[in-house]
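Good morning C.,

I know you're traveling, so I'll keep this short. The sequence:
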Amino acid sequence: MLPNGLIGRRGFLAAQGLAFLGALATEASAAPAPKALDIIDCHTHFYDPTRPQGVPWPAKNTPLYRTVLPKHLKEQPQFRPVTGTVIVEASPWVEDNQWLLDIAKDDPFITGIVGNLNPGSPDFSKDLRRFAANPLFRGIRVSADTLRTALEAGRLEGFNLMADLDLALDINGKDSATLAARLATHVPALRIVLNHLGSVAVTAEAPPQAWAEGLVTAARQQNIWIKISALAESAAQGGKNAPADLTFYRPYIDVIWKSFGDDKVIYGSNWPVSERACDYITLQRIALEYAFERGDAATRKFCSLNAKRAYKWLDRPGRIRGVTTPSP
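The tokens, ready to paste straight into the viewer:
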């Protein structure tokens, strides 16, 4: 189906009730889904603007400026039930890492936290060791620009410390794949996860060659994984409508999956930021329909087991009921 047709279809579905029709699409899927799936959404954001200190992000007077907690994700209509999450901290405030650890303390749905610390900060080592003492703290995220600066300056002490502490590094931004590959050669013990498809705009055109080549380079490193996260947002840049059909996204997911294989692709949503493009049930359906075509084993790896290797997320007592969670 052509992009214009896809956009029209999305508008129609929205008008008729997308959550209900998304559920019907489950039955019509050509590829059968595993009956019981452990699905760890490995890219969510939580925050509370009503705190006395407020929040540095998101901005006021935007749809995202509201209290967003794990209970709100659980309330979202879902294509398949999400059984846990790895949170990614977007706030640059150091103590917001502790805030996430505090809300995670008594909620087994939270299986890990990717914090936000600056490796160039004088207090980085102290802060990293402090947060890493909590087993739920699974790593940090940096921008591609931050990593580029560190590589050019040869200042990789912080990344070596992360490897020593058995933590993972998320990277987000332009050229993240090629930068990750460079870092992996210097710090091969550090587990690295590319965010948001490796940062590419998904369009009706063929996938950019430079992006595809960067993924191939990164995938050659055994310690690099990639998240299929922010999928619909990547197609909704510039205010465009995000298509609601897998067909539109397939050429880009094909490149990712062919490069990284069944063992190094990870599911993530980027919720609630993803709401700027579509609702949760739609973005999850698109990603899972593709995974279903890869078969039962690949789907289970994509939904939780690959992330277990990358993040070493915690399987906490009371997290889920009625879902078998095989060992990675």
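Safe travels,
E.
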